[in-house]
Structures are given as structure tokens and as C-alpha cells.
Amino acid sequence: MFKQLLIGLMIISGVLVTGLLLPAKLQAQAEAEPDAPIELPASPTFSRGKVLEILATDQTEIGGYSETYQKVRIELIDKQVIEADYILPLGAGTDRLLTTDLSVVVARQAGEGGVQYTVTDFYRLPSLLFIIGLFVVVIMVFSGIRGVTALAGLGFSIWLLLYYVVPSIAQGADPMTISLISSVVIAGIALYLAHGFNRRTTLSLVSTLITLSLSVVTAISFVSVTRLFGLGSEASIDIQYGALKDVNLKGLLLAGIIIGALGVLDDITTAQTAAIEEIHKANNTLGFHELYLRGMSVGREHITSLVNTLALAYAGASLPMLLLFTVYQQPLWVTLNSEHIVEEVVRTVVGSFALTLAVPISTLIAAYWYGQKSISTPLQGTQKTVKSSQ
Fold it and tell me: Crossing angle, helix 339-371 and helix 249-282, to 10 degrees?
């Protein structure tokens, strides 16, 4: 049964992986039927450099607001020395002022008045790489080879999102279809890389795929009932009025909810399956019913803790938006009724719904599998008696 299940999952994954050819097909269609060319302003080119000198720091008025302005001399990475403008973001503190020896990102824009250089941001990549490196070291020290393979699974997931999911949706593919294909592929590869190619992982994968299917139905139902259209963020509005205006925003919202739910499911299904297996190893006389009851005792603790964790994670990510609503002169019920708020609530509820369903589903599947391998006490006692008589 285990080998047949494994072969079936491999066939399904192979069929789904063929969906990765979709971007190339879409690109070929776009080249066959090109749209009318749209003239866009020339994009700036970017470089990085080091601030050599602060030439001036003053106040300037932009759009009726007084903002801090700096003129600086910068040495770019190609050793060219240029002068650039820098305007602090509105409301930024003095810690955002440029100082000498600071690494920055510089935009070069050609215009009617000549070439203009503007400092757009601090250069943060070295610090980011240090943080990521520290994270990798901690994972490797405390998780060993499993930590390394888990990081490989994480790397694959990020690669798939950046080079398959995003380009496919940008080229006009249905976000729901793309998210389902990528979720199944991510679930299979990431789980096996992180936890090994074994029976426990396969049971976890089966539980994940079943729960993910139910989560898709839940997400579609909840988004439809609340009449959400994917306009709950500034990024979505920019997409609607920008070069990607043909993207299905409602489908994009559903795709984001599904991929977000997948991250919750991996944790729950592997933990519950592992708990059942360890209970079985500790006492291999326990049958299906007893394994399920003990597994659910552990699972309920997962549910109560992760629901709170998930809600706080979404609330933390939405804190600036929640703070912005406090300045609006409107009743609380109007604020709560807005698409911005309802989107986040639906994300949280679908994720919580998924993890709640994942517990009994993964516990049921694991308890059924290991319950079949239980050793009955009478038989074990008979075997001991026979052995002692011999």
C-alpha cells in the first residue's frame, strides 16, 4: 500500500510539474499576437556608491509640505564621482539623514535638463546577507543535516515563487491555477527535503494535500460571501491601474491566501504525524482509536496556540494600516466593513480554518496507518508464555 501510494503521488507531482511549461506557452502567445506598443518614460538606471561629502542640508517645499533636502557628493562603484540629490521621506527623523562613508543606492535619470542623480535608499544588502547567514548557521547548528535540507526546500520554494508563480501571473495566467500547481509541488519537494523520503513524510504530504483542497474551497467560499475583489491593498490598486491591469485581482487574493495557508499546514501535519508515530513506538499495542485520542490531545494544544500566533502575525503585518484608520473620521463599523480590514480577517480565518482541519485529518490518517501495525496484548502475552516454556 505504501509503495502504491508513493507511486501515485509521484505521478500526480509529475503531471503538475508539467504546468511549469505554462509561462513559455504564454510568452509564445504574446509574441505571436503582440499588443500595440505603449510608450513609457525611460526607466532610470541604478548603481551603488559611498557618500564622500555632504555639500548642503536645507529645507524645501514639495506639494505644500516642508521637507529636508540634501546635496551630496558620491563615489560610485565604477569610481565615478557625482553629485546627487536626496530628499528625506515625509515625517522621517534625523536618523534618515545621509552621512559620510554611508553606502547608498543611486538612480541615474536622463532628462531634458541633462543627467540627474538621486539617492533613493540606503544600501542594505550586506546587512541582509549577514542576517540570513546567521540564520543559516543557527539552523545548521541545532538541526544538523535536516536543517540543511530544510533550507534547500525553502530555497526551492522561493525560487518557484519568483521564477514561476510571479512571471506566470504577470503574463496573464490564472492566479488560482498557478497557486494550486505551485502549492502541490512546494508541499511535496519541501516536505521530503526537510523530513526525508520516508513513510512519515508521505503520510504528512497526504494530509497536507487533503487539507489544502478543503482550504481552497473554504477560501473561495469566504471571499465570495464577503464580496472581496482583491482591492484591499495599495499594491493591488497599483496593479489595476498599471502595466499589469489585466491580472485577475480576485484570483490573486485567493492565490495569496492559499499559499499562506500552505505554510501553516506543513507545520501541523508533520508534527501530528510525528506525534502519532512516537506514541506508537512508545506503546505498539495501542490501536487506531487510542492513537487517535492521544494524538488529538496533542493536536488541540497545537490549535489553541497556533490560532493565536496566526492572528497576531497578520495583525502585526497590518499594524500600519490599522493605525492609519484611526485618523479617519468615520464610525468603527464602517472601518471594520472596509475591504482592507475584511481581507485580513478572511486571511486569518482561512489560515486558522486550515490548521484546525489539518489536526484531525493528519491525526486520523496517521492513527489509521500505525494502528494497523499495533500488536495485541493477548498475542504478545501468548508469545512470551510460549517462549518461557521453551
Answer: 30
Find the helix or strand (DSSP H, E) in which 75 lies.
strand 65-76
Q: CA-CA distances (angstroms) from residue 96 to 49, 90, 91?
A: 17, 11, 10
Q: Which amino acid is at 382?
A: T
Give, for all 390 residues of the chain, the pLDDT tens digit: 454 444 445 544 544 444 444 444 444 444 444 444 444 456 789 999 999 999 998 887 766 677 888 999 999 999 999 999 998 876 666 788 899 999 999 999 987 778 899 999 999 999 999 999 999 999 889 888 888 888 898 899 999 999 999 899 888 889 989 999 999 999 989 889 888 888 899 999 999 999 999 999 999 999 999 998 887 777 777 777 766 777 888 888 899 899 988 877 888 899 999 999 999 999 989 999 999 999 999 888 878 877 777 777 777 777 777 676 666 667 777 777 888 888 888 988 898 888 889 999 999 999 999 998 777 655 444 444 334 333
- Answer left, alpha or beta for residue 161, where phi above 0 means left and psi between -120 and 50 means alpha: alpha
Q: Where are the beta strands (DSSP E) in the chain?
A: 45-62, 65-76, 81-87, 103-111, 114-122
Smallest CA-to-CA distance from 219 within 162, 265, 173, 185 is with 265
Spell out the domains of the chain, with CATH numbers in brackets.
Answer: 45-121 (2.40.50.140), 141-376 (1.20.1640)
Rounded CA separation 191/187 (Å) = 6
What does the DSSP 8-state code read for residue 85? Answer: E
Which residue type sits at 365?
I
- Three-state DSSP at 111 gives strand
Least Cα distance to 164 among 52, 37, 18, 349 occurs for 18
Tally Cβ neighbours within 10 Å of residue 93: 8
Strand, helix or coil at 259? helix
With beta carbons less than 8 A apart as the criterion, state whether 76 and 49 touch. Answer: yes
With a CB cutoff of 8 Å and minimum separation 6, the contacts of 168 are: 22, 23, 26, 178
Q: 94: which DSSP letter?
A: G
Collapse the DSSP code of 325 into the 3-class scheme (helix H, G, I; strand E, B; otherwise coil) and give the result. helix
Does residue 367 contact residue 280 with C-beta atoms inside 8 Å? no
pTM over the 0.85 mark: no
Angstrom distance (rounded) from CA 324 to CA 338:
13
